[in-house]
Amino acid sequence: RTNTTLPASEVALAYKQLWMVERAFREMKCTLKLRPMYHWTESRIRGHIMVCFLAFYLEMALRQMLSSV
């Protein structure tokens, strides 16, 4: 069901944020080489994912800082 009470600016912002989340997942899966994972214990798998996520976060923060320079 479509909510037509939202202003167009809010709809556009929500769509942009959705696009950014989808891009983040694509980046983590492709660019950061989240897979294949050669770990078998839960703690190592969690650690691997955390390192990949941290690398992604640092890359995005650096991009944002450099774009404002």
UniProtKB/TrEMBL annotation:
UniProt feature coiled coil, ranges: none
Q: Cite a single GO MF annotation.
A: DNA binding
Q: Which InterPro entries match?
A: RNaseH-like_sf, Transposase_11
The name of this protein is Transposase IS4 family protein
The Transposase IS4-like domain, residue ranges: 3-56
> A GO BP term, please?
DNA transposition
Q: Which Pfam families does this UniProt record tie to the protein?
A: DDE_Tnp_1 (PF01609)
